[in-house]
Amino acid sequence: MRYPQGGGLTAERQHSREGLRLRAGERFALGEASAAIAKDLRVSVRSVQRWRRTWNDGGPRSLRSRGPASLPRLSHRQFAQLEAELANGPAAYGWEDQRLTLSRVKTVIGRCFHLTYTVQGVRKLLVRNGWSCQVPVRRAMERDDDAVAGWVKEVWPCSEGSRRPVEPGWSSKTRPDSP
């Protein structure tokens, strides 16, 4: 199962789901119908049917939790080291501006730990460890609103060409002088 806040089930939730599966397994042994089990346990009939197939193939033991689907590639100690590296800022890695994008964090991970992550993998890693997307709340102090307004009025219209055709239009789809 995937959840939008990053990561899967917590250990407590995983344990409660395992309990549901084991209770369903006890009722499978009694020969109860899947619909009745689903209604009592408040789960979908399809889940109960899937658990029943697993139970038929491997017995009650097969309904036990197998733990997390995958372990994080960076340990807690390594992630703490990554946070320290990111605290140095982008300038420490040769980037001129002060933005830490996902692709830049991916590069830092590659340089520090010799691991390759996808950009989405980096996002999931950061969200799982409590990081969030940061967008500046205020505008830069150096911004000159009068200069921006003047540029929008004077320079921008000149940089964009006219959208109207220069020649008169034609109602037919073919031009009169076409062969």
Task: Write up this protein.
The protein is built from seven helices and no strands. The N and C termini lie far apart (63 Å). The chain has 179 residues and is an all-alpha fold. Mean pLDDT is 83; it is low at 1-6. It is flat.
Q: What fraction of the residues are assigned to beta strands by DSSP? A: under 5%
Rounded mean pLDDT is 83
The total count of helices amounts to 7
What's the number of extended β-strand segments? 0
Biggest sheet, open or closed, and with what strands and sense? none
Query: What is Rg?
Result: 30 Å
- The gross shape turns out to be flat
Give the SSE map.
Blueprint: H1 11-29, H2 34-41, H3 45-58, H4 76-87, H5 102-113, H6 119-128, H7 145-159
Helix pairs in contact: 1-2, 1-3, 2-3, 4-5, 5-6
Keywords for this entry:
single chain; 179 residues; 0% strand; disordered N terminus
Please sum up the structure shown.
It contains seven helices and no strands. The chain has 179 residues and is mainly α. The model is unreliable at 1-6 (pLDDT under 50).
